[in-house]
Design brief:
The protein is an alpha+beta fold. Helix content is 50%, strand content 8%. Keywords: Metal-binding, Zinc, Zinc-finger.
Length: 480
């Protein structure tokens, strides 16, 4: 099945909102524009086969005469590039539908002899040569321009070659001696209209996608803030153990981080995930919620509402990521098709400011960052307060001079062993610690947010202290 059909089917059946579908890249319309570009080029004798032949002849000349050619000296008989047209209004504001206040217009340039106006490649058909010659001689016409590169400091270059070899812009190489006989040349601009239509349409669609993403970003940022307020309310530890859902939400967020729905810091799958993998991970997270029956352990009805909104927000992020992935694929496919039909190499010359910005500035990435910085920290994670030696909660916390924190039990063990080096930074600070290093503020914080873990660790510390004083069998029944 062709991509155009798959793309349209995905837009219609994947549940995207109508305004999203309307803003998507119009693959079929752009494909029709490519046919018009192909037809226009062919009418001038510049079909894809001919242009590929010109490029191939340059490669053969390099292989035959210049085995040590630098990449920056790669000679081409024509150039296809983009010029920027400023579209800022009188107040200096960007016009609607533009990128960075500018539109990028394509132009096709061919090297011709400065004296005769003839193309510098003998493989062109006589009809094409005559047409280029006419263009070169028609400098006064409004729809034809000859750009004298040697007189323009912004585009100054020199072109080398003969009728048997193609030539190209050598702006970086003009200070070095030419390898073959050189002669003055000019770049004649071949007037095209259909390619401007193609790239104008593509840029408008990319600008529409950027606008849609900005709107979605604002919408979901507001949802994250509202959800954060609700989670804060149901997890407030001041309400008492039996009146808040702190433990349940801590477990929910732990499962969410372990699921690595949209991003991962693991070595094997480091970085952002595509929509397919994100969907799989989100499904696994939902299944874990069901398996651990966390939905039935809430004490406050608002927690169920908050969890529903949390799942819905992740589904929105996933939908946005899926929409972005399919438009990025459509973008890559249409540029590849343009190059295949025209051999103009636009994937390299198409301005990166348009090519990348709307499709790489991911709403999913922005919202996930907001989730990790604003929502998840509402419920402190136990992993952030573990002792690096015993891997249980650092209670009572001792802050060494190097600012690393250990539980008091592990500090006592290190001091009894006369180990003066911090296990993390190897600083000689352990033996200097005493009761003055006890972090009282952190003690109160742990009691507030980790009451269950603190009680367990306190009981463990008391038993360890009793064993130190009365021996290992102090809590065992001697009669048994």
């Amino acid at each position: 099945m062709k991509f155009a059909h798959l793309y349209q089917e995905s837009l219609q059946k994947d549940g995207f909102p109508p305004d999203w579908v309307a803003s998507a890249i119009s693959y079929r319309q752009l494909k029709k524009c490519i046919k018009r570009v192909e037809t226009e080029l062919s009418s001038m004798g510049l079909d894809a086969d001919t242009l590929n032949l010109l490029l191939k002849s340059v490669e053969e000349q390099h292989t035959k005469h210049d085995a040590q050619v630098d990449e920056e000296e790669d000679e081409k008989p024509f150039r296809y590039q983009f010029r920027s047209q400023d579209l800022n209004n009188e107040n200096g504001d960007k016009e609607q539908g533009t990128s960075n206040g500018a539109r990028f217009l394509p132009k096709l340039l061919f090297a011709v002899d400065e004296e005769t106006g003839e193309p510098l490649d003998a493989s062109l058909t006589p009809e094409t040569k005559r047409e280029f010659h006419v263009l070169a001689l028609s400098q006064q016409l409004t729809d034809v321009r000859i750009l004298d590169i040697t007189d323009d400091p912004a585009r100054r270059s020199s072109f080398v070659g003969s009728f048997d070899s193609a030539t190209s812009d050598m702006s970086d190489a003009e200070k070095r001696p030419h390898r073959r006989h050189s002669r003055p040349v000019r770049m004649v601009e071949v007037p095209l209209t259909s390619d401007s239509e193609f790239f104008g349409m593509l840029q408008d669609q990319l600008s529409g996608l950027a606008k849609l993403q900005a709107e979605q970003n604002v919408k979901m940022e507001s949802e994250v803030k509202e959800l954060g307020q609700l989670v804060t309310k149901v997890t407030d530890p001041s309400q008492g153990k039996k009146k808040n859902d702190l433990a349940q939400w801590r477990k929910i967020f732990e499962l969410y981080l372990e699921s690595r729905v949209f991003f991962s810091t693991n070595e094997q799958d480091h970085g952002a995930h595509d929509s397919e993998k994100a969907e799989k991970n989100l499904r696994r997270f939902s299944e874990e919620l069901e398996n651990q029956k966390l939905l039935t352990k809430f004490k406050k009805p608002e927690s169920k509402e908050a969890l529903d909104r949390f799942i819905s927000l992740n589904l929105e992020i996933l939908q946005n990521l899926r929409f972005q992935d399919i438009n990025r694929l459509a973008m890559a496919k249409i540029l590849k098709k343009f190059d295949k039909r025209t051999a103009l190499g636009v994937k390299k010359t198409f301005p990166s400011t348009i090519h990348t910005s709307p499709l790489t500035t991911s709403v999913a990435k922005a919202i996930c960052y907001q989730l990790s910085t604003e929502l998840l920290p509402i419920v402190p994670a136990l992993d952030d307060y573990l002792c690096p030696v015993c891997f249980s909660i650092s209670y009572k916390p001792i802050r060494l001079l190097c600012n690393h924190i250990f539980c008091i039990r592990c500090l006592v063990i290190m001091q009894r062993a006369r180990e003066n080096h911090c296990p993390l930074c190897r600083g000689e600070v352990v033996m200097q610690a005493d009761s003055r290093n006890l972090d009282q503020d952190l003690i109160e914080y742990m009691k507030k947010w980790f009451p269950k873990e603190v009680r367990s660790k306190q009981h463990e510390n008391e038993r360890a202290a009793a064993r130190d004083e009365f021996g290992e069998n102090y809590d065992k029944c001697v009669l048994m």
